[in-house]
Amino acid sequence: MKFRIEPDVRPVVTSALALSGAVGVFALAFGVLAVGAGASVWQTCALSFFAFTGASQMSAMSIISTGGTVSAALGSGLLLAARNGVYGLALSPYFGESLGKRLLAAHFVIDETTAMMTAQTNPRLQKIAFWTTAIALFSLWNLGTLVGAVLGGSIDPHTYGLDVGFTAAYITMLVPHLRTKNGRIAAAGGGLLSVALAPFLPVGLPILASGLAIFVGVKPQRAQVSA
Amino acid sequence: MNMSWTLVIWLSIGAYAFKMLGFVVVGSRTLPDVLSRCLMLIPAALLGAMVLNGTFTDAQSIVIDERAVGLLVAVVAAWRKLPLIVVVVLAAATTALLRMA
Question: How far apart are the first and last CA of chain B?
Answer without folding.
Answer: 27
